[in-house]
Amino acid sequence: MSLPTTSDLHRRVTELLTQLGVDIDTGRKAGAGDIALRSPITGAVLTGVPADTPADVRDSIGRAHDAFRAWRTVPAPVRGQLVRELGELLRTHKQALGELVSIEAGKIRSEGLGEVQEMIDICDLAVGLSRQLHGLTIASERPGHRMMEQWHPLGVVGIISAFNFPVAVWSWNAALAFVCGDAVVWKPSDKTVLTALACQALAAEAARRVGAPDQISSVVVGGPEIGAALVDDDRVALISATGSTRMGRAVAPRVSARFGRLLLELGGNNAAIVAPSADLDLAVRGIVFSAAGTAGQRCTSLRRIIVHRTIADELVERLAKAYRTLPIGSPLDPRTLVGPLIDHAAYEGFRAAISAATGADGGELIVGGGRVGGDEHGEAYYVEPAIVRMRGQTAIVRAETFAPLLYVLAYDDFDEAIALHNDVPQGLSSSIFTTDVREAERFMAADGSDCGIANVNIGPSGAEIGGAFGGEKETVGGRESGSDAWKNYMRRTTNTVNYSSGLPLAQGVEFV
Ligand code: UN1
Known about the structure:
By secondary structure, the chain is of the alpha/beta class. It folds into 2 domains: 52-266 and 476-492, 3-Layer(aba) Sandwich (Aldehyde Dehydrogenase, Chain A, domain 1), CATH 3.40.605.10; 270-465, Aldehyde Dehydrogenase, Chain A, domain 2. 39% of the residues lie in helices and 20% in strands. The protein contains 15 helices and 21 strands. It has a 7-stranded mixed sheet with strand order 12-13-14-11-10-16-17, with helices on both faces. Strands 7-6-5-8-9 form a 5-stranded parallel sheet, with helices on both faces. It has a 3-stranded antiparallel sheet with strand order 3-4-21, with no helix packed on it. The radius of gyration is 24 Å and the shape is globular. 2-aminohexanedioic acid (UN1) binds next to loops.
């Protein structure tokens, strides 16, 4: 496996940031008070970026709040022009931003570009929405009265995002928030600050072009204390946070304690049921993309297969064969399909889960699990995606391991498959491979999959932006991106208008 050198990456990052309009000193050494930014491609530090302080965060929130007060009175279709410009800038800079995502998050080129395409798509959706923020008209029980709903801008939206979708998740929130009349303050993962600064530069340019308040969008960088300053500030009307269940458990009580609004998208433990009637060629392709793609580091990655016992051996054999030929290596090499894990902790999690599954839990390692190149690549962690065949759904299978580790469980009847499917704490995404319409419909019915996303004949990952994205149970009930997710970013008022000269009271109440 041949990797670029850290100095090549550093040179390229400097060029890309210049192209994207980011004005930072990439020659800066990561000193005290700085965030050290690494590329998982080589594991070495590329540059240091100064961290913000909690006081800086409060200043950003104050300025965002002022921007919101101006922005909320701009007509929504005019606000849409900001997002239209942002979408145009993303089209222009798709290659550069996609490559920066690959360098900073370790995604293969086509997935880095795909992530930017996801941003362009949500911008298109948001521009259309800017003319469709509709409320209802409701029949009043009183004569000469009319009831209606209006949707108004909400306020400052605090966005907390994870390393694995370093730009798209911001855009899901920001594009909707902007058309809804809100301002955003974004705390990206401290592993992916450069891509965040690039998005911020594009948003600032879009704002300049349309004359929107320039503090409509800002980025704050740092560790958990920076997130805490955002979470605790009661000028932040909505906290939209994506990440681990552990992070959500820290954030949710603090926001709730001040009665702030929450939109959470936490861990997943996504499964695919493979039924006897499944088209196995299609199932194998869908499974390999969802389980090994993005090195298993999507919240929607496939982590469990629940396969009918009569086809389990054949499926496992075909998957193992496909896994053995997966090209693993630098995500910048166009032949690569599996790039690196984000860092050492991710590697440790992968190894520990395989040990637990194959040790006391009695699972059988079918393929993968090794570190490519051993210790030769220092702090860069390339692993062979692994498949472990389990005898039961043990504690390790029920936990989310953020790595390319796929557990296989067998079932005998369909009710058992659904029960196994739902017997995990998380509820993000799910899928079934079947050509039996009864099974497909049952899987999507009220007593089928308990997840926010339930797919038929595709894997659980790779959702389009048009649908509402999110889950249930420990994933928590937030919905982002398409459908009516925009309602998260607005406040609803119900108006009753009396155009008569009488004053009838509701529910027939008599009073003077
Ligand atoms: C995430 O991993 O946090 O459905 C988001 C998908 C992508 C989004 C994943 N569209 O896999």
